[in-house]
Design a protein that fits this description.
Helix 7 runs antiparallel to helix 8 and helix 12 crosses helix 13. Helices cover 36% and strands 25% of the residues. The protein has 358 residues and is α/β, with parallel strands linked by helices. The chain has 13 helices and 13 strands. The chain starts with a helix and ends with a helix. It folds into 2 domains: 102 residues, Beta-Lactamase (2-Layer Sandwich); 205 residues, Rossmann fold.
Length: 358
């Protein structure tokens, strides 16, 4: 594969508003467009093609990795003036494959992402823990970038981000931003997070809550007066609480539950839905804000499942929103079809019934 051809695939993905590019031996390049993989009208890729593509990406890799050395490798690649790509390389059946996630050069705003006004509140907290959750590819990184960008535009703070790899590139505005990449600037999340506490941070962004040590240090950072943002691969608030606590040994879980209840400020759980006009995707979400009642439900393992119902009842008073309420808003606003809203609803029958009674 010539480099011009590789770059043509990247430019084509931007023009078609794809979210990801798959390069795999035996298949033509695939673009993910509105959640579906669509092949490019090209010949199937050969082992030499994907080896060449990896080599092109690795030309600027700070870890000095070569394509022949790759087994699993995360990095990034830039098209100056266009966008960046988060890249994962891996071997399957002895050959190299790549998946490239497109990251726009322009940092998204809350308005760009069509997020409701109450989400802006998440950028106003000055201590505690906020988690953006959802499956892979649901826009968590974009939402966190919008939060960090809003803080940068409105407050004088020191923001430290720990990412694998760095996705959106921030420049100092009102805040000073230090972006650290795992593998290039630091060995791992845990070491970087411990070090961040000695770097006079006001805000810390941790790319992902991956293990017990990361969760524990993030909680300690929140407990000592810092504002911590991170992501978890969970579907909603109740599952997020359960996942974080389950990582710890049984004898520590009761104390961790109390720590989490006292320091978790909010969870924002996301799902990407196809727009009614066919122009990309829109975020459906559940937003939980921690109130005194929420804190009690988190502390009591037998009552945590009740978070969903309380979120639904707390919209007017606290600005929370359930997934089904979000779907109703998007449907009434013409952003998604009724069929999409019903398909993604927590309970399709209850959703349809509630819609008819409004």
């Amino acid at each position: 594969m010539q480099k011009e051809q590789f770059l043509r695939y990247l430019h084509g993905s931007i023009q078609l508003k794809a979210s990801d590019i798959h390069l795999k031996v035996g298949s033509p390049p695939l673009y993910r467009i509105q959640k579906s993989l669509r092949p490019v009208r090209e010949e199937p890729l050969t082992p030499q093609d994907t080896l060449d593509a990896c080599a092109f990406v690795l030309e600027g890799d700070a870890q000095n990795t070569t394509a022949n050395d790759v087994r699993d490798h995360d990095t990034s690649f830039s098209l100056p003036g266009k966008c960046r790509f988060r890249v994962n390389m891996f071997r399957q059946r002895g050959s190299l494959s790549l998946v490239l996630r497109i990251i726009p050069d322009q940092i998204p705003t809350f308005d760009d992402l069509l997020l409701p006004p109450t989400v802006v509140d998440l950028a106003g907290y000055t201590r505690g823990l906020v988690l953006v959750t959802g499956a892979a590819g649901t826009g968590k990184s974009s939402t966190l970038a919008a939060i960090i960008n809003h803080i940068n535009q409105t407050r004088s703070t020191h923001i430290v981000t720990i990412e694998d790899p760095i996705e959106f590139l921030h420049t100092d505005n009102q805040s000073s931003i230090s972006q650290r990449e795992v593998g290039t600037d630091t060995m791992d999340f845990n070491r970087a997070l411990r070090a961040a506490l000695r770097q006079d941070p006001d805000v810390i962004l941790v790319g992902e809550m991956r293990d017990l040590e990361t969760i524990d240090i993030a909680l300690k950072a929140a407990e000592t007066g810092h504002m911590v943002y991170s992501t978890v691969h969970t579907a909603d608030a109740a599952k997020t609480v359960g996942r974080l606590i389950a990582v710890f040994p049984p004898e520590e879980q009761e104390m961790v539950r109390i720590r989490l209840a006292e320091n978790l400020r909010a969870t924002l759980s996301q799902r990407l839905l196809p727009r009614a006009d066919g122009q990309g995707m829109v975020v459906g979400l559940e937003l939980m804000k921690n109130t005194g009642t929420m804190e009690e439900l988190i502390k009591n393992a037998d009552k945590t499942a009740g978070l969903k119902d309380l979120i639904e009842r707390s919209r007017e008073q606290y600005g929370m929103i359930s997934f089904d309420q979000s779907l109703t808003d998007l449907y009434k606003g013409g952003l998604i079809t009724f069929e999409v809203a019903k398909r993604f609803a927590t309970s399709p029958a209850d959703f349809e019934r509630a819609l008819h009674f409004e």
